[in-house]
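Case study 2.
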Amino acid sequence: MISEYTYCPQMDFYIERVDRDTGLDMPSFHIHHNFEIYYEIAGTRRYFVEGAAYIVNAGSVVLIGENQIHKTASLGEAPSSHIALNFSREFLQKVVAAFPDVDFFSFLADPQNHLLSSITVKQQNHIQNILQQMLDLEGETSPEGQVLRAMLLTTLLLELKKMCLQQQQQGGEKGRVSNHIVEQIQAYIAQHYAEKLTLTGIASQFYISPYYLSRLFKKSTNLSLIEYINGVRIKAAQHLIEQTAESISSVAGKTGFMTTAHFRRVFKDATGLSPQQYRQQYKRLQP
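Prediction:
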């Protein structure tokens, strides 16, 4: 299943189509070095990416950059279908080297482009056709197959980049779910994540009840409050692990985790790797 692979840094390329008869929620948020492209074929889902929640209808595309927190959940129990594509920057390194003046990646991480919803039926069919061609190459390990996969992916990226620009020119996407109180709470967490944070304590800061805060946050972001806090902490921990030689226990303490054991468990759930494995993997990816 894709939940086993989408955040696995050892895989440079993975694509999967999923057809479900009933709703299903991603059990926890993900953070991974790879890019992700999610195309909703049928149904409607809620998607959380980097502090914002979106309603994703059939024919829409979700774009996720490197190391961006994300999680998806059902809206009801209706059937749904999607294609999820996950790939690393390294997978296209030869193509990128051949075209140094072309930016293939930065648009994927732009907050304005997380939801690509203002696209025509013709464009939707074009996207799905390219994705289907990549699905049809499953199991193809020849050099020719690898080249074709890379060519299809670069074609898709250039098409999506153009569609994102068109959407911005037309006024932007229309599916974002926003709430002023939640945005204030997110800003508060960003400033205080290294401290001890509780539902009751945060609720008191904003003069609302813990019950109301819990329900409002979940409805607005698709994450529980503690999931969101842990996501912010894990991103901060990733930075420390990548940029410093501090011990894992020191990183845990500096990012707000009460115990190293708890930090290790949450980190592995989010990234697919233990903190030490993550540090080793990051070093191997550096030029």
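Residues 13 and 217 are 33 Å apart (CA to CA).
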